[in-house]
Amino acid sequence: MAALTTNVVPLTGLRYDNLLAPAAGGGDDCATGAGVLLIVKNADTTPKTVTLAVPALVDGDLTISSRAVVVPNAAETAIPITERYRNPSTGRCAITYSAVTSVSVCVVRVATS
Fold first, then answer.
1. Residue 98, pLDDT above cutoff 90
2. Which residues lie closer than 8 Å to 94 by C-beta, 6 or more apart?
3. Of the chain's two ends, which shows fewer C-beta atoms within 10 Å, N or C?
4. Largest CA distance in the chain
5. Strands (E), 1-113
6. Contacts of residue 25, Cβ cutoff 8 Å, sequence gap at least 6
7. What is the mean pLDDT of the chain?
8. Distance (Å, whole) CA 50 – CA 81
9. pTM of the model
10. CATH architecture for residues 2-109
């Protein structure tokens, strides 16, 4: 699992296409919080599913399903990484992919106010 770096977007904007890195076959993890986005670029000819683990329980023993986001073929998708996805033991969000062929990712954080 690769630890993705969070890139802060300054007021003047941020070019992110040069920050995209190949998605890791074993998954990635990243920071969570307000204004944090996972940008996923799928350059393949088939859609890919990105899954964000939800480590929380309801009533102490009921699991919450993970969030699955389909990234269409030849498209880019921005996925909010809120505190909901924060694993209490690592402080980060665990991310997996249905396949990593032609998939690249980066994490950005924008100001919320």
1. yes
2. 1, 27, 29, 52, 53, 55, 85, 87
3. C
4. 46
5. 2-3, 6-8, 21-22, 28-30, 36-42, 48-52, 57-58, 62-63, 67-71, 75-80, 93-97, 103-109
6. 97, 100
7. 95
8. 12
9. 0.93
10. Sandwich (2.60)
In the block, residue with structure tokens 């990484």: 81
Query: pLDDT at position 2, please?
Result: 93
- Distance, CA of 32 to CA of 13 (rounded, Å): 20
pLDDT of 113 reads 64
- The letter for the amino acid at 36 is V
Query: What is d(CA 78, CA 108) in angstroms, rounded to the nearest whole number?
Result: 10
Q: Under a CB-based contact definition with an 8 Å cutoff, are residues 95 and 51 in contact? A: yes
